[in-house]
Each structure stands twice: as C-alpha cells, then as structure tokens.
Design goal:
Elements (H helix, E strand, L loop, with lengths): L7 H33 L1 H4 L5 H14 L6 H19 L4 E4 L4 H12 L5 E4 L2 H9 L5 E5 L20 E6 L2 E2 L9 E5 L10 E8 L4 H9 L3 E8 L2 E9 L4 H8 L10 E6 L3 E2 L3
Parallel strand pairs: 1-2, 1-3, 5-11
Antiparallel strand pairs: 3-6, 4-6, 7-9, 7-10, 8-9
Helix pairs in contact: 3-4, 4-5
The structure holds prephenic acid (PRE).
Prephenic acid binds next to helix 1, helix 3 and helix 4.
Protein name: chorismate mutase
Organism: Enterovirga aerilata
GO biological process, one term: chorismate metabolic process
Length: about 280
C-alpha cells in the first residue's frame, strides 16, 4: 500500500510547525544575545558590531546554502537578524554618502542592516566620516565605484583617533547581488581588533603609473580609490594583510610615491565571492 499523498492542510501544518520552531529559535537567540551583552562589555564600548565575526558567519551561510530558497533571501534574512541583534545590544545609525545616488546606498543599508537601524543621508563622504567620528558607535557607508568624482575622502581616516574602514560590503559578492554596490563601512576605531586579511592604505603618488598598478596587482593588492590633489594623486590601496607597508611602497615606487608617509586607514575580511 502506498502512502496517501499529503493534503494541503497536512503540508500547511508542516509549514506552521517549521515557522513556529524558527520563531522560537529566534527568541532563544535573543536570550543568548542578552547574556552576550554582559560578557562582551557592549555597554562600556557602546558598539556591538564585530565585522570579522559577521564576515565569517556570512561566508559559512553561503557555503552551506542549498535548495529552492534563493541565496539572496537567506543572506537578506540573516543580515536582518544579525544587524537587529547588533542594534538591540547598542543602538546605532547608518550614515550613507548619497553623492552617487540614494537608491543603491539605501538598498545596501537596508539589505545589510535592515529597517530597524536608522538610515541617514549625507551629500558627501567627508560628512559621513564626521558624523561617525561624532557618534558613539554609528557606521558610515561610502561607495567605492565613484572614481575621482568622490575626492580623496579616505584622507579623513588618517590619524590614530580618526574613523577607520572596518568592512567591505557585500560580504558575499556575486553577479546580480540584490544590493551589490561595493561599499566600505567606516566606524570609530574598534576596541577589539577586527579582520586584517585586507589592509587599506592612504598614499600620495606623483603621477598615475600602469607599472605601479601592475606591481600592486602582482602582490594581490589593488588601487580601490584615486583622486587628484594639488601635486599628484591621492590613492587608497588595498593590500593583503600578510604584506608590509614597505612592500606596498616598493610596488608604488614607479609612480613616484612620496610627499607624505603611507598611512593605514583600516582593514577588512578577505573578499569572498560565489557564482559568476
Ligand atoms: O558575536 C557577537 O559578538 C555578537 O554580538 C553577536 C552578533 C550576532 O547576532 O550573531 C551580533 C553582532 C556582531 O556584529 C556579531 C554577531
């Protein structure tokens, strides 16, 4: 005798059972977060965001994901869960540079931080960085694909107490990501060390040089920003964290590196992509 096919009501009961279990697990997750606040000392630091932990959680999610549910949805759900549990530990706002348009920045902010976290618009990156510097634990989002028109905003990150880059979004890169605008996340310097697989440096070049860009690429690095300044070019360079600033300086030498020291302005987890 073959089993009778389940009825619609049977299948809906299964869905209700799963939904209730998921909801109970989320509430249980909230209880763990409640205990974590004391262990982590969130109240003292005023900032709960741990980008290195989040990058590894998002990577694990992408690696185990299977089945009918699109990865976009699974990623979006967990972004909202993690961001909201960050927010309930210590409220923060997300400040976005919308000089290249509000829509992609709003999509990125909402996808990665949900709707509970306030979204504040700024007409340029320096104003985002100033807002972050004046806050206790806010995050700033600056677009990476605006070219020279955005100016050398990363120079505002120079100095020990100045905000720093702490993450690059999206955590899971892929073609057709629903919020795939490349964005750097800026915060006040983290109390605990963040991810350092990629370290970002601000430097001044005398001129543009293809040979320098090529040497940087051979080290596994890249120029992620450049903008003209009074004498030469201000650049934002990304370098694997295993390499030293002197290796960066040697790679950039064909471009006439100089005028001021190479300065670290932040770091983030290794970029991770799926598909494509
Ligand atoms: O692991 C932590 O430190 C947490 O605060 C928990 C949690 C999460 O909800 O999983 C929230 C915020 C952090 O950015 C990372 C992860």
């Amino acid at each position: 005798m073959t089993e009778p096919a389940p009825t619609l009501a049977d299948l809906r009961r299964e869905i209700d059972r799963i939904d209730e279990a998921m909801h109970r697990l989320l509430m249980e997750r909230g209880e763990i977060i409640d205990r974590l606040i004391a262990t982590k000392g969130t109240a003292q630091s005023g900032a709960a965001f741990r980008p290195d932990r989040e990058a590894s959680m998002m990577r694990a999610l992408a690696e185990r994901h299977r089945g009918l549910l699109p990865l976009d949805t699974a990623e979006g759900i967990w972004r909202v869960i993690i961001a909201t549990f960050t927010y309930v530990q210590a409220p923060f706002s997300v400040h976005a540079d919308i000089s290249g348009g509000d829509a992609p920045m709003r999509d990125s902010a909402r996808f990665h931080f949900g709707f509970t976290v306030p979204y504040r618009q700024h007409d340029a990156a320096p104003s985002v960085i100033a807002a972050v510097a004046a806050s206790r634990g806010d995050l700033g989002l600056v677009r990476l694909d605006q070219g020279a028109s955005a100016g050398a905003w990363w120079r505002r990150l120079e100095g020990t107490d100045a905000p720093k880059v702490i993450a690059r979004l999206p955590f899971i890169e892929r073609p057709d990501h629903p919020a795939g605008t490349p964005v750097l996340v800026v915060s006040r310097p983290l109390a605990s060390p963040g991810a350092r697989e990629v370290v970002l440096y601000s430097a001044r070049l005398e001129r543009w040089s293809g040979a320098a860009a090529e040497a940087l690429a051979q080290l596994g690095g890249e120029l992620v920003g450049s903008a003209g300044e009074a004498q030469g070019l201000s650049v934002l360079a990304a370098l694997p964290g295993s390499l030293s600033p002197s290796q960066l300086a040697a790679a950039l030498a064909p471009a006439g590196l100089g005028g001021r020291p190479v300065v670290e302005v932040g770091s983030h987890a290794a970029r991770f992509s799926v598909g494509g």
